[in-house]
Structures are given as structure tokens and as C-alpha cells.
Amino acid sequence: MTMTKPEEVRRVACVGAGVIGGGWVAHFLARGYDVTAWDPAPDAEQRLRRLVDAAWPALTRIGLADGASRERLTVAATLEEAVADAEFVQESAPEKLELKRDLLTRIDAAAPAGAVIASSTSGYPMTDMQTGAATPGRLVVGHPFNPPYLIPLVEVVGGERTDADAVAWASRFYEVAGKSVITMKSEVPGFIANRLQEALWREALHMVANGEATVAEIDASITEGPGLRWAFMGPMLTFALAGGEGGMAHMLDHFGPSLKSPWTRLEAPELDRELYDAVVGGCEEAAAGRTIADLVAERDRGVIDVLRATGRLPGQATAPATGRGTE
């Protein structure tokens, strides 16, 4: 399969124009691509153009690419017309397995031979979706976060019949298109970020159901607590700092036994030597030569920046307690 170089892609097709698909359309337009979209809903074009118009002020504030224009959007009458000359296709249909299988089969049959096809699925493995495609090697998952035009993360992973070259191509294309990419080594139901979100969400529901915390308390516990750190330093390095100068190794030695405490309804993994070494070594790799002191300074600067940006530094107007929703 001969693919256009990721840096040379000019035309993108978006199949599905709901919240996620429309968000992708807005993102690709803002990055200067020609975008052809298709959605079977009778009012799809009106809704899509309203969504793009609503997103455009934010996209303008963060910076439009050269040539970016809403005029570069075309809404096609059929799926086949939408993908006919696409160099990349982003499918964003509702999370129904049979629907996605059917759409990906149709897209595969209609799209040019060199076009990589990505699904925005938030949970299905590509192995389960590519079963009907004649050329399944070019089908990958490109899982975004809402709204795709603002949240940079995309998780990329292929299925059992996906070509490694297609996965590498998609990852590079998303990077060129301004995304932050995690290229997963293997399929995991729900991918990475959704699994972590789901664990937090599930525990929150338990606490509400048991009368242990209110919705407002749960949200505040994140926005006023660990969420400030997670905006720029993930949970692993954050926990490494809890070990002081000893880093993650000291943290595991000191707090490891508490994994068996009944703090959550999730069963903790066994902290054996293999997991211990993987976590400590992974933190050292993620630190990339930065010392604990360097990371502490970085964390503190980041917290101050987030507090300042959200109006929560002493002396600033206090941000409202409601309306800080998560996506």
C-alpha cells in the first residue's frame, strides 16, 4: 500500500459529524486541511457547521495554521463521495459494534488504496471492527478526547490484521496535525486514559451511592487537589515525588503495603518484584535525567500556573465552584 507522506496530506474525510466527528472536522480545518464530511442525519450539515462556528473562536485564540478556513469544509451527499479522494479518513460513528463494522467495511471499499482509515472508537478493539474489510491492514484506532479540537491526546493502536506501517503512519500524521500521540503496543479494552478515567468514575459512583461523598465534594476533591498536578505531571511521577529524594523506590517501600488497604473497591495488583522494577524504572525513564529537586520545582511551577490560569491564586478572583466539568 502506497501512502501519501503524513507531512503531505492535504485532504481528510470525516465520517460521522456528531460531537466527536464534528470536533475532528473543526480540528482538521484549523490545521489547514481540506475536509469532506458525511453523516446520515438529515440535518447533519447544519449541525456540523454550527459546531465548527462555535469552536472557531477558541481555535483562533490558540492559533490557526496557515490556510486554515471554514470555507475548506465540504459536506458530501454520500459516504462514498466523502472518502473518494481522501488521503486519510477519520470515522466517528456512535459506539455500536455492528454499525462500526459496516461503516469501516464501506469506507475501506470506497477510499483510495493508499488512505489510512482510523476509528474514533472509545472502547472497541480494532480486531473486532475490521472483520469485514477487504484490506484490514490500513485500519487503526485513533481515539481522541472531547473536544478533539482542544484536547491534544490521541491513542493509536492497530488490530490483529493491521499493518505496523499503518499504525506508524497514523501516529506520525496525528503528530503533524498537532496532536499528542500515544502509540499503544497492544490492544487494551478502553485503551489507557479511558481505563484510568473509568476507575475514578466507578469509585466516585460507589461513594455517592453509599452516601460517603456528594457530587460537589467529589469534583472539588479533584479540581482542588490532584487535578492541579495531573494537568502537567501524571500520577506516576506525582507519586514518585511522594517518596522524597528516594523517589518511586522509597514510595513503594514505604507505601506499598497500603495497596492492600480497603481504600477502593478495585482489587490492587500484587506488588511483586517485576511490577516494582517496572514502576521504578519507568519513573526513572520518564524523569529523563531530571532530579527529584528538578521535578519538584517543575511541579510547583505547574501548580502555580494552573492556579493563576483558573483565577485561584490568592488575590485573584475566585473561580466559580460549579461549571468545572470534565470531558
Automatic annotation (TrEMBL):
One of its GO terms (biological process) is fatty acid metabolic process. Gene3D superfamilies: N-(1-d-carboxylethyl)-l-norvaline Dehydrogenase, domain 2, NAD(P)-binding Rossmann-like Domain. Residues 190-258 form the 3-hydroxyacyl-CoA dehydrogenase C-terminal domain. The keyword Cell membrane does not apply. Coiled coil: none annotated. SUPFAM superfamilies: 6-phosphogluconate dehydrogenase C-terminal domain-like, NAD(P)-binding Rossmann-fold domains. It catalyses: carnitine + NAD(+) = 3-dehydrocarnitine + NADH + H(+). Its EC number is 1.1.1.108. GO terms for cellular component: cytoplasm. It is found in: Cytoplasm. The chain crosses the membrane at residues 12-30. Pathway: Lipid metabolism; butanoate metabolism; Amine and polyamine metabolism; carnitine metabolism. One of its GO terms (molecular function) is NAD+ binding. Residues 12-185 form the 3-hydroxyacyl-CoA dehydrogenase NAD binding domain. PANTHER family: 3-HYDROXYACYL-COA DEHYDROGENASE FAMILY PROTEIN, 3-HYDROXYBUTYRYL-COA DEHYDROGENASE. Homodimer. Belongs to the 3-hydroxyacyl-CoA dehydrogenase family. L-carnitine dehydrogenase subfamily. This is L-carnitine dehydrogenase.
